[in-house]
Amino acid sequence: MIVKELPQEFLDAKPIIETIKQAGFEAYFVGGSVRDTLLGLPIHDVDIATSAYPREIKKIFKKTVDTGIQHGTVMVLDHGEGYEITTFRTESTYQDFRRPDHVTFVRSLEEDLKRRDLTINAFAMDETGRVIDMFDGLSDLQNKRLKAVGDAHERFHEDALRMMRTIRFASQLAFKKRHFRLLEKMRLCWKKSPLSEFTSNGSSC
Fold it and tell me: What are phi and psi of 202, to 5 degrees?
């Protein structure tokens, strides 16, 4: 699939991706901005994922800020705008149900997208608007279906807040009752997470 009319936010960030590619690396738009573009919704922050390691990004661009370099994220400053560039990565073990104990930088886009929570959040898009959909997320988006990338229990066990985000997406997409199997898996994971203690005490957001 190709997005023919890219929102201005992508057009403004396009030179960043082109510069990274000219240096011999891969770079793509990822995350919520791609999903919301496919839904026809306004976007705000533009996130970029790349095969370049943080030290390589810092060599390519003159003005950078180490916003989360331990997790592979460097902010590139360009014409008054800041763009977060994150290296493709894999993550292992989540002892606190929130943050990974270990992050490994990789050169593979597929390995990076495998760690995403839902298929509708696992899109990548290049600077021409070509959408990369490795987990059938376009079909899920069209059918208003929420499906985890890989094993749902593993995705929710890794980060308990993913369950709350999934409920938010469920409300926004107004998905039908036949898609509630994922929520049942969430319920089982919720009982084992620290968030269950928070809500069982009567606290609310």
Answer: 90, 5
The tens digit of pLDDT for each residue in 95-149 reads 655 566 678 999 999 999 998 888 999 999 999 999 999 999 999 988 888 888 8
pLDDT value of residue 184? 56
pTM for this entry:
0.81
Nearest to 9 by CA among 49, 60, 45, 54: 45
Inter-CA distances, 146 with 172, 178, 188, 202, 203, Å: 11, 11, 17, 28, 27
Q: Residue 11, class by beta-carbon neighbours within 10 Å (0-12 exposed, 13-18 middle, 19+ buried)?
A: exposed
Q: Which residues pair with 64 in a beta bridge?
A: 76
Query: Looking at this protein, which amino acid is placed at residue 108?
Result: S
DSSP-derived secondary structure letter, 180: T
Report phi then psi at 67, rounded to 5: -80, -25
Distance between CA atoms of 57 and 188, rounded to whole angstroms?
Answer: 41
